[in-house]
Amino acid sequence: MDAAFKDKRSVAIYLSQVYHYAVHTPRHQALVGVNMNNNNFQYMHYCFEHAMEETGHELMALKDINALGFNVTADTMPPPLPSTQLLISFLYNEARSENPIHHLGYGFWSENACPFINDFMTNLMESMGLEKDQMTFYSGHVTLDESHAKEVREIIKKVVKTEEDWNGLKRVIKITFDLTIGIVKDMLDAYKELVDNNSEDFSIYTEYSRMNEEQTV
């Protein structure tokens, strides 16, 4: 699948998934805050503040898709892939759970992810000839996630107290990380179907690419 990492359509497929889970991030984060089992005022404040900060981030993903050369709107956005939908549903379930502290497991690893993927993203952008203004969701979060990573570590220190808290936190880390890896695998499968002309969900990317090619001939 080396071709996938040289084809802008694969990035567009992945960004469509980023769009979907980013739409829901502030919503399930706010749900943790209103969960009646969340009785810690500091944690409630963290949830609402973080939800506000995450609001509208899906628009960066949408902007990036169009900056790559595709014509996509919120209404024409391809649907979530199976792992994307599972991740979204799982996080809503954790937000409503009897112990909403567990939800912090997702924020703990996702807000700390950038340093571990910087080299990959740099190489990907270079191989595709992408500029930072075509990958604003990633480049914007490099700086933003630094402060968020610090904040999530601080709130974990304050609210995670029991063995059950820690075990639940670790469970959510593992499940959400595995589901995120699943999104990448689903993206590669969807890309292969697109290349083989067997994709209805993502055909908008091929159709628009073909229109651009015809216009430049």
Number of strands: 0
Major sheet summary line? none
CATH superfamily: Heme oxygenase-like
- Rounded to an integer in angstroms, the radius of gyration calculated over CA atoms is 18 Å
Stretches where pLDDT falls below 50 for ≥5 residues? 210-217
- Which H/E pattern describes the elements? HHHHHHHHH
CATH class, named: Mainly Alpha
Structure overview:
This protein has 217 residues and is mainly alpha-helical. It has one domain (2-216): Heme oxygenase-like (Heme Oxygenase, Chain A, Up-down Bundle), CATH 1.20.910.10. The protein is built from nine helices and no strands. Helix 5 packs across helix 7 (136-159). It is elongated.
In short:
This protein is mainly alpha-helical and 217 residues long. The protein has helices at residues 8-34, 41-54, 58-67, 82-95, 104-110, 114-128, 136-159, 163-195, 203-216.
List the helices and strands and how they pair.
Layout: H1 8-34, H2 41-54, H3 58-67, H4 82-95, H5 104-110, H6 114-128, H7 136-159, H8 163-195, H9 203-216
Helix pairs in contact: 1-2, 1-3, 1-4, 1-8, 2-7, 4-8, 5-7, 5-8
